[in-house]
Amino acid sequence: MFSNKKSEALLAKIREGAPLMGREKLRLIVELSIPSILAQITSVLMFYIDASMVGSLGTEASAAIGLVEPASWLFGSLTGAASMGFAVQVAHFIGANDFRQARRVMKHGYLFCFVFSLVLMAVACGVSGPLPRWLGGGSDIQHDASAYFFIFSLAAPFFMMENLSSAMLKSSGDMRRPSTIAVLACVLDVVFNFLLIFPSRTVSVLGMDVPLWGAGLRVEGAALGTSLAYVVTSLILVWFNVRRSPILAWHLDRERFVWQPAYVMKALKISAPMALQYVLMNGAQIVSTMIVAPLGNVAIAANSFAVTAESLCYMPGYGIGDAASTLVGQTFGAGRQDLCRSFAWLTIGLGMGVMAVMGVVMYVFAPEMIGFLTPVAAIRELGTRVLRIEAFAEPFFAASIVAFRVCLGAGDTLKPAVMNLASMWCVRLTLAYALSQHYGLVGVWVAMALELTFRGCIFLFRIARGRWYMKPQTEKAES
């Protein structure tokens, strides 16, 4: 059913100005969404398995990683923001049937983002030592938390190249290869972590005792395993982009590479609001962690595990959001306003429907989802309670996820970034602090559910007003 050739044929109809029937539009959304959703879910399962491995080491190890997790998200978000500034331009040029300029943008993206990743790595490594203390972590987890974040930071260039290469392929309409590589990253991560976290031991296989090597690095092994997985997969993705992509491969160009500042300036115009948003949004996550930290190690661990468990339910939203960015980006570049709006509403509606179902699943199976991650009864009980609170907000969370990606596809990032920030800082953190004083971690998650519902509503209002769509402005660089 999900034929890559059929998807390419439908995308070609967008570029050629041919009409699309409602069934064709829905088919295209589904065919672009499915690989990305599967990759997102596999990624979450990877985090599940990682968390369960670390969880088996005890509450302190889980709390150490949970403490610096928001800072790690900031790390990944900045690489994503830098990548999207170039990927959106690539989608616009491909929609306009200008493949040569799409390749030019990609080359500029690789050079700029690599340099940026080195700066990011230096800053992250520099703050890794005092970071756990700044976040309010106890002395019993500060060493492990610092070590985890330091190792994670060293892989910045590979995280960046993986993110950029994947974004470029998705902008061209190729969801399958980056999704397949994402699955490979998950498999490698599990294997590396299994070998690096635990010490050498004997395992029973079909009744036979088999000696198994292990490095016994515990929390440090978890960071090293994840980093090594991204090293391998980033190299594969870069190779495919540069050598094998039918649209983006560099050998398709004959002229010399000439630096064009206009591409970078436009990328910064798109990326800067996203980067600021990610910094302040993840800063808000860090503040949220600081609100949770005084509640104790059980609350820190339960909060971290509940976030991991919830991510299994909202990953389909991000998968559909990837399809929305590609389709809106290419229709925007092609100047097809009606089709662009149609894809926007179809993807948002599909995202809300899928995540409503996932919210029901999360509510029903919350005990099992948390129980898989930790054997500690107190953490299980608290994690289950907060996860069930969040289940009610999933449809509106989907609206905010997909609508933001719709805006991104059209190059509209400033106002959506302000909307995200206002919602997080003015609604979530204010409520979280007030409710945590009386209801502990449960109060923090009630605040989260209310804020996500509010955020979804304001994004639906923005899409309905239509201000996110502007006339295509694909600059023609000098030949």
UniProtKB/TrEMBL annotation:
Predominant place of localization: membrane
Keyword line: Antiport, Cell membrane, Ion transport, Membrane, Transmembrane, Transmembrane helix, Transport
Keyword Transport: yes
Pfam families, A to Z: MatE
PANTHER family cross-referenced by the UniProt entry: FMN_FAD EXPORTER YEEO-RELATED, MULTIDRUG RESISTANCE PROTEIN NORM-RELATED
Signal peptide: none
Places the protein is found: Cell membrane
Bilayer topology term: Multi-pass membrane protein
Annotated TM spans: 28-49, 73-96, 108-129, 149-169, 181-201, 221-242, 343-366, 442-461
Record organism: Hallella mizrahii
Protein name: Multidrug-efflux transporter
